[in-house]
Structures are given as structure tokens and as C-alpha cells.
Amino acid sequence: MLDFITWTADPAIFTIGSREIRWYGLAFAIGFAIGYMIVERMWKKEGLPPAWIDSLLIYTMLGTVIGARLGHCLFYAPEYYLANPIEIFKIWEGGLASHGGTLGIIIAIYFYSKRVSHKSMLWAFDKLVVPTGLVAAMIRLGNLMNHEIYGHVTTLPWGFRFIQNLSEWMKGAAPIFTEPSHPTQIYEALCYLLLFGLLLYMYWKRNAEEREGLIFGTFLIGIFLPRFCIEFIKNNQEAFEETMLLNMGQLL
């Protein structure tokens, strides 16, 4: 039995000029692409106008990316980003917060419901959240490839040793590894995949969409309860969280 797993995955797939194409971005894109195909099948099943789904994709992507980026900047490091607002636009350097993405999507769906579908927000959420568990799992796997958002030191045999000096290592320096730590990215990804399977079952086998809000409510419990619990074994992202009983992720 392994005492630990030394994780040496390269976050970059390849480089074009000075820009890296990373696994994180690919995972994000794959999740959205598969999610779109799933929602498209739901649209056909219910005989909804095709134009509505294209608008839903645009609203959702904008809400997710803008909300997640602003959430990271304003929830976790407001002093720095308010003093250096141009840094907010450097999304390729990392820094996305799922809670900000959630708020961004809520705002986006409000406008989508008012301007496009003219149906309730719950109607849209019941469809949108079905593939979201898959997207969330793909994002966490992207975090795994980035050697980020891992947990406390552990003696469990599946503990991962992540590279601490990642940017220097990617430039040729010798790696500096963490102590074996909880791979909380994998824990979360597995929880989100289970939720994804449950919501697919509810929609396709139990016709849960007929009870407006049921799928959305199940999603909220299924994605945030595991996240809240796993945060207890996850390293804090910012220094100010060290003195908090619940960290920022849990409070949000």
C-alpha cells in the first residue's frame, strides 16, 4: 500500500507564444460543452424554442465567469484588487470563486427570465442545474491539475504531495513538495458527480421538473452541504481566515 502519492502533473497542456493552455481551462470548457448538450436534449424533450437555449448559454457563461472572478477578487482579496483594479481582468492568472459564480448565475438568470423566456427563475434553474454538478466536478479536477485548493496534512494512504513552488517548478526549478495532504479536489469532484447522476435520474426517470423548484432545491443541498463539510479539512485560501471559526467559503 502506498504511503502517499507524489503529484507531479503539469498544469499546462502546451504553450502558444507566452500564453499557456492549461488543463483547468480545458476542464472548464469540456464541462460547459457537455452541459450544453444535456440541456439541449432537455429542450428537445420539452419542445422549447431553440433560440432560448442559445441565449441561456450566453447568459450563463457570462454570469459564471464574471461572477466567479469578481467573487474571488472581492471576497478573498478586496484590498489588493480595489487598489489594483486592472488585475481583476487577468483571469488567466487564476482566481475564481464558486460562490461568486453562483451569484453571477442568479443575476444572469434573472435577466434571462425577464428578457427571453418570460418564465419563472425556478423554471430556468431546474434545467440549468442538472449538468452543473458535472461542470463543478470538472473544475475541481482542474484545481487538482493546478496543485491548488488541497487539504490538511493526512496519514491516509491516498494523501497527495503537491508542488508548493509551482510557478518556479514550471520554469525549471526543483520541486518543493507539501506533506501528504487530503486531495480535497477529488473529494469534492466525487460528491458533485454523484449529485450530477442524481439530478439526471430525477429529470429523466422521475419527471421531477413537473414540481417546480424540486431539482433546484436538491441541487443546492447536494452541492453546498458537501462543500461546507469538506472545508473543515481544506487549507484556508487567505491568511485572514486563520482566526475564523468558519472560513469564508463556509460563510458564503
What does this molecule look like?
This protein has 252 residues and is mainly α. The chain contains 10 helices and 4 strands, in the order βββααααααβαααα. The strands form 2 sheets. The protein has a two-stranded parallel ribbon. The chain has a two-stranded antiparallel sheet with strand order 2-3. A hairpin with a 2-residue loop joins strand 2 (12-16) and strand 3 (19-22). Helix 2 runs antiparallel to helix 4 and helix 6 packs antiparallel against helix 8.
Class of secondary structure makeup:
mainly alpha
**Which descriptor suits the 3D outline?**
globular
What's the gyration radius in Å? 19 Å
Low-pLDDT runs: none
Number of strands: 4
Q: Averaging pLDDT over every residue, what do you get?
A: 92
Helical segment tally?
10
Instruction: Report the β-strand fraction as a percent range.
Output: 5-15%
Main β-sheet: number of strands, strand sense, barrel status? Answer: 2 strands, parallel
The termini sit apart by: 38 Å
- Biggest sheet: strands side by side, in what order? 1-4
| Share in helix | 55-70%
**Topology pattern, helix = H, strand = E:** EEEHHHHHHEHHHH
Oligomer: single chain
Layout of helices and strands:
Elements: E1 5-6, E2 12-16, E3 19-22, H1 23-46, H2 50-76, H3 78-83, H4 98-117, H5 121-128, H6 132-145, E4 160-161, H7 166-170, H8 184-204, H9 214-230, H10 248-251
Parallel strand pairs: 1-4
Antiparallel strand pairs: 2-3
Helix pairs in contact: 1-2, 1-6, 2-4, 6-8, 8-9
Short description:
The chain has helices at residues 23-46, 50-76, 78-83, 98-117, 121-128, 132-145, 166-170, 184-204, 214-230, 248-251; strands spanning 5-6, 12-16, 19-22, 160-161. With 252 residues, it is mainly alpha-helical. Strands 1-4 form a two-stranded parallel sheet. Strands 2-3 form a two-stranded antiparallel ribbon.
